[in-house]
């Protein structure tokens, strides 16, 4: 769902240029399940929630070089909020495919989008819809009531095999848990559900996240790990909580770089370091294969349209 333009925007720091390979052997068909690409006028005009201005080296050609440096052969592009439509993501998928990278996308749509438009996006490789539930946009305790307004949209995307991707703070998971459990489509929670990984044992949202993962329709992205409390890779204070997630539901976890780390203000990590963290979390190559290959295959690349 596209948001109005903000009068103030920050200029993003550039991602670190690719220069090193990961420390472990990346399996064939590994997938970066969360990244954004950007474009600039006159081809791509801003018009969404313009809280930030992307760096000049956050375009799809830059992303291709990064993926090739990591040995990653698949990618899922998530539509940024700063544009009027999904064209930058649709074009980005085409460029990725031309470079030999299998690509899928996650769109932002108006809840009233009709089935012919969904079919058009599906044919282009879109496999889900992202919903931003920002803290200030919905009164606490009203999350599920507001989200139920999406039920007609969910009914329309269901026949296409699409899923719902939620960007929500961990302190709101409790209000959404029952609604999510009853949905007829898979739900993917961005960025660990934004729970407090460093203090997981004291964070009620973390316990809710585990309960949500016990439902077969809920998935979690192991992405944006650099946006938590630890300043630099491998972010050791987060390790225990992430390892618990991996042990709890290895078949419904996805890994993503969150490239190009838009509006990030901390110490910029290299994307090779972010991939290496997966080996820091689990030494089991078969588990890494699930997270990097088998799970994305099921959610994004085996989907069939109606």
TrEMBL record:
Residues 31-300 form the Amidohydrolase-related domain. This is Amidohydrolase-related domain-containing protein. It comes from the Bacteria. GO terms for molecular function: hydrolase activity. Gene3D superfamilies: Metal-dependent hydrolases (3.20.20.140). PANTHER family: BARREL METAL-DEPENDENT HYDROLASE, PUTATIVE (AFU_ORTHOLOGUE AFUA_1G16240)-RELATED. Pfam families: Amidohydro_2 (PF04909).
